[in-house]
Amino acid sequence: MTRVVRIAAAVGVTLFLAGLIALGSSFPLPGDPPSDGLLRLDWRLRGEEAGGCLRPTAQELAELPPHMRNPDACVGGLPPYRLRVWVDGEIRLQDTIRAGGIRQDRPLTVYDEVSLTPGRRHVRIEFAPQDGPPTERRPSPSDEAGVRDRPTVLETEGVVEMDAGQVVLAVRRQDTGALVLRPPVRGEPSTRDRSGVRSSGTGLSFLHVPHMVHPHQPHSHQNHGGGLVCHPEGYGDRQNQGSHSQ
Amino acid sequence: MLPRRALARLDAWFDKLYGWKYNPLYQSGTIAVLMLVVLIVTGLYLLLYYRIGAPYASVVRIQDQVWAGRWIRALHRYASDAAVLAIGVHAVRMFLRGRSWGPRTLAWLSGLALLGLFFFLAVTGFVMVWDVQGRLLAMEGARLLDALPIFSEPVSRAFSGERAMPAAFFFLNYFLHIALPLGVALFLYLHVSRLARVKLLPPRKLTWTVVGVLVLVAIVRPAPLPPEADPSVIAHQVPVDWFFAFWVPVTQALPAGAAWLLAGVLTAILVTTPLWSRPRATERPEPSTLEERQCTGCTQCSVDCPYEAITMVSRSDGRAGLVASVDPDLCVSCGICAGSCAPMSIGPPGRTGRDQLQRVRRFLDEWEPRADRVVLIPCSRGAGDVGHLDEFEGALVYPVECIGSLHTSVVEFLVRGGAGGVLVAACPERDCWNREGTKWARQRLFEDREAELQERVDRARVAFVEAGAGERGSLAAHVREFTTAIRRLIPPEPESSVEIDLDCDRPPASSVLGSGEAGP
Could you tell me which residues are beta bridge partners of residue A206? Predict the structure, then answer.
């Protein structure tokens, strides 16, 4: 190998390695474009508490060490909830959601995804205690904090028109806690508005999206941007009121 | 072993192209450190313009408005890619060359920790941009985390699009991206803590070449900025950095539990490498030992030891002064101390200077070298991989474990015993199976480093070449050339008995090795 050839080869190998780094630094993941849209379920619910509170007698309390004398020691966690999602009348997701924490006394959390065929789709979501609403309810710490009147059953129903690759969210409204369908928030921390929602402009079209509202509040018509239009219907309200135990 | 042979060939090829001094394969470890330096410098510049409250917008600004921002960002990206490439090459080399067990366990484990930390650091860097790639990595990481029973709520909820990404998330990410390099520095310290005379950076020419090439690539092809993260669409064909995101397609195709299982198995394999890659107990080389009575306390072995395994301590035999002491937990049995010890008092069992003299005597008895014949002393682990041969290109082969462990008295013995010449074939300096063996051997033969080759040995009959395991052709040319040169010299008179000095500051012990036992 002559000196010229050697230098040329060294330069060539160097450039090859550099090209490898440049190319490997940004190369698309393989995969076809998505053929479906996506319904993303994402909410958190305190839920109804089951069980009861032990009310020890004065004598029982006296037998306990001072630091363990709790006159209202409540036991029990949150009952499991049933999540069901229908798309065009066909049930697409059915799951039992258990409360978080070892004692299952943490809030119920839903995070799931359901694929939606592009086009107009009728979506219905129901999230309710598996064994029906409890008949008796005791105050929880969150009640004392003033959040007493939240819904115990979440439902929503509506027609969504979407293209392949688009995402629609089923989330709770921050103000009423009602379940709604809306596009995701797209934006950086500094670009959000006061309500924490920014228009995405994704072109998603929401038609006839009834949502859960507080029974004591009038229906709230809202527009989250991106062409979201809410048309309240009786279904959500009827179910909502029927399932509440105040 | 096929991978080891393939590595030797690759080494040889790169040696031809770049020369051993600038061979990027040999310098993979130092190149990785150099890339870390580049990352810190470019990263500091980028941090001046990064905004936690508007991550993507600030990166767009860096790309479009900040002076040289586009190139600096590209250099930052490419340096991280080059670093992971260099670390990968370095790790594979260390494993294939059997440097992943025993006293090197700390270096291996800290290297793994460095790699893991570096990966995590890079992921935080990608998430900082909050483009589609950053979101993809964050979401895939969150999906995997959600499979662990750690969090009471799915971490993935943070990325659902239910609300704008909180600034706290980007602050945490920013903090980690700045704080983790401190961890990298700590593990780097651990990584090299058992080495003497650590070289953290490549030779200057290679340093500037590597940086220059990356700058060139950054200018010619600035790192593209993918679209902003958008939770309202299903991302597909996301442009990713494959040096860091290669695992994403694998984990995406697996349930989270299976992905964790796979990651756990791979991690277990890597972490336990020092256990399963070590030779059987009977085949493990033993650490060096010392014959205190013969040690003069000259400190040369302590100076030469590349692993700082030898310290000088007070003598226990009642004599004044210091004596060498070997820490067996640090000694890798390279034998370099054996080559450094003029009185031949230290070295791995069976490989001390005295043992070497006994062996060379047997060699001379068996082969009777002639004045027109060369004796080739190759490193048995490199040097053309000829250590297992009896003859090579007409030269008698006398292999040693490491050229650094070769005592110069062996060379003297061969020349005075009748060999026409002695060709010492070492591994390329940066490719010494151990460390510094080649450097010390050359200096002992030609630059009077202790234990130096005695003046009475005709230097025309001694030559020194460097050849990697895959450079047999090059070594053959050197042997032929040296043999031709030797045949032009006047044949020496072989000595019937060769006397070798075994003490460096005492009168010679008059050990006659040509006809009797080695040692006084």
Answer: A160, A228
Type and span of the H or E element at A112? strand A108-116
Burial state string for B44-63 with b = 16 or more CB within 10 A and e = fewer than 16: ebbeebbbbebbbebbbebb
CA distance A47 to chain B (A): 15
In chain A, the residue whose alpha carbon lies closest to the alpha carbon of B57 is A188
Residue B377 CA to residue B375 CA, distance in Å, equals 6
What is the average per-residue pLDDT within A208-226?
35
Q: What type of residue is A194?
A: R
Q: Do B152 and A188 touch (CB under 8 A)?
A: no
- In this prediction the ipTM stands at 0.83
Which pLDDT does position A75 carry in this prediction?
A: 64
- Which pLDDT band holds residue A51 (cuts at 50, 70, 90)? low
The CA-based angle A213-A214-A215, given to 5 degrees, is 110
Instruction: Return the number of CB contacts < 8 Å for A and B.
Output: 171
Q: Which of residues 73-92 of B touch A (CB under 8 A)?
A: 77-78, 81-82, 85
Q: Are B52 and A189 within 8 A, CB to CB?
A: yes
**Closest-CA distance of chain A to residue B204, Å:** 17
Distance from CA of B114 to the nearest CA of A (A): 21
Can you tell me the distance from the alpha carbon of B294 to that of B323, in angstroms, rounded to the nearest whole number? 10
A191-195, A218-222, B148-152, B204-208: which is most confident: B204-208
Cα–Cα distance between B124 and B119 in angstroms, integer?
A: 9
Q: Which residues of B touch A191 (CB under 8 A)?
A: 54, 57, 164
Interface of B with A in 321-360 (CB under 8 A): none
For the CA atoms of A219, A223, A224, A226, what is the dihedral angle to 10 degrees?
150
The structural domains of chain B, with segments of one domain joined by +, span: 21-229+238-276, 346-512
Biggest CA-to-CA distance, chain B: 93
Do residue A24 and residue B18 have CB atoms under 8 angstroms apart?
Answer: no
* Domain B21-229+238-276, architecture per CATH: Up-down Bundle (1.20)
